[in-house]
Amino acid sequence: MHQTRVLLNNAQEQLKDTSDTPRLDAEILLAHTLNISRSSLLALESIVELPEQFSALVARRSRSEPIAYMLGEWEFFSLPFFVEAPVLVPRPETEHLVESVLQFCGEPESILDIGTGTGCVVITLLTQLPEAHGYATDLKDHNLELARKNATRHQVVDRLRFEPGDLFEPFDSSSKTFDVICSNPPYVALRDQDTLDPTVKNFEDGTALFSGDDGLDLIRRLIEEAPKHLTAEGWLAFEFGIRQDSVIEQLLSGRGYRDIRIVPDLAGIPRIALGRTPA
Description:
Helix content: 25-40%
CATH architecture of the largest domain: 3-Layer(aba) Sandwich
Number of domains: 2
Radius of gyration: 20 Å
């Protein structure tokens, strides 16, 4: 017989130097091991038999491995998404990208998600916009396969096409345009890589994180190349990093985008940029 509180206390102690939320991590991993909800775990006073998997998971987390990779899924916009290393783990900040598209971009019929990763952004949008259809691009076939699994899971796969390639490469030879082009691009400056949490730096795909000396290399390309792929009243919407808002606003206005908006996250930090197709 194992006392639940003692198990959690021991795991919390083991994780305290690795995680900012060691108790929560311990609870999530133990609930996962027992195949019960976290709320059910907290009501559980003792455990008859503890699977060996728990100590192995705690050891992995103590080495900074993302919990999402251990669970095999992560929640985004209240939806579960399959996650596999080293694909970027869906983040709460990126939910503001979905919210901004839904708030400012009307009812788009066509959506293009650049660098889709797990597919969480475009898939969530399609669940909220039942009349829309989407396209997802990514450099890596593995990411597109994962996004397809998630699209199937959330029953939008029949409204979503997957195109391998860099940025707009799959559409460069066509006249296809979109009502919304959205992206959570890499935006971390190479000079800042040593400041990242080991959970991110040592495990997640660097090509989804870093983008040149100032972090804006890919965003510059996105802003420059998007107009020819947008409908006349289309929108470009993307996430960016801390203290990049003023430069991004200048880049958008310099390229002639209209109705430019910079949307903050819940902490008040500028996080999402939107601009309508240049005249």
